[in-house]
Amino acid sequence: MSSLLSTAPVKRLFAPALRRLEARGRITAKDTAKSPTTTGSGHDSGVHAEVAELRKQVEALRYELHYTELLFGDLGGRGNRRPTSKQIAHLEKEIRAVTGVESPHAAVVQAYRSIVEVELRGVGRIAGGTMNVLGKLVTTPLLAPPNGQVLEIGTLFGLFSCCMARQMTRYGVDYRLSIVDPLVDVQIQPGRPNGSDRSGSPVSEPVLRANLALGGVPEERVRIRRGYSTDPAARAELSDREYGVVIIDGDHTEEGVRADLEWAEKLVAPGAIVVLDDYGDTKWPGVTKAAEGHLQDSDRFEFLGSVATSAFLRAT
Ligand SMILES: C[S@@+](CC[C@H](N)C(=O)[O-])C[C@H]1O[C@@H](n2cnc3c(N)ncnc32)[C@H](O)[C@@H]1O
């Protein structure tokens, strides 16, 4: 009991009641650890009854915390999907600044539910923290891309694509997904070790296809091109249309991001949205460097702003 009482959420929840009891001089931190077996005055037994009731509530809360942790905590190779209200409020402020949408709260809640649902249903994981993923999912459709052709460079397990498909549907957009990723069982990141994923699932085409099916993306709405975004053959195949949304989330080196930005310039429809993942993230300095360098020279992309750790560009 005493160790549980020392956990932050429990402390917060019960602090007012414990303060009241302490203020009456009838309870100390030690008392909360022992059973109220002694019989005392009527006042004492009232205090003990209150302590017993608190203990029951702590037990119930411990149960709640445990399964919340199993479902949404960062166990099992996935990220923590329990955003605080402060994080959500901050994210909404950023979304408002980039999109001009005054109240994005409902959109944020809907997208959050999709992340949880799609990750629970599929295998592997969505890469990135909850704020980063939510920022991309909410901001992109609110920027009203000119068409529903979505290109994702770097998909990992495809679960983010499933969520983006859901977002497009949510806004009545007739979407089509194009995905390019080497899909060689491990995540490729130049300059970093390419070990197996912490979720335990292989980064492979069968896993990707299974996830797209589990995530509710019909086969006819998606095409998968195995390979690197710099492969001439992959580029040729994927350059057959003008995209309304391009998500750059593949090779995170400065050269890799620059190459993807240069390619994206040639692929986008006027007014298209380019989402540049991990922009401003100190773990991936190459992304920010490449974006800054590219934007200095580019007259095709306008920088709209950033939300969490993604930059949003609009094609002229
Ligand atoms: C950060 S993960 C993508 C995460 C995914 N978009 C998500 O949100 O869950 C990066 C992926 O890009 C792949 N990748 C690396 N270099 C690439 C390239 N040049 N072209 C396409 N994909 C690449 C990696 O193997 C990995 O699957």
UniProtKB/TrEMBL annotation:
Pfam families: Methyltransf_24. Keywords: Methyltransferase, Transferase. Residues 25-47 are annotated as: Disordered. Gene3D superfamilies: Vaccinia Virus protein VP39. One of its GO terms (molecular function) is methyltransferase activity. GO terms for biological process: methylation. This is Class I SAM-dependent methyltransferase.
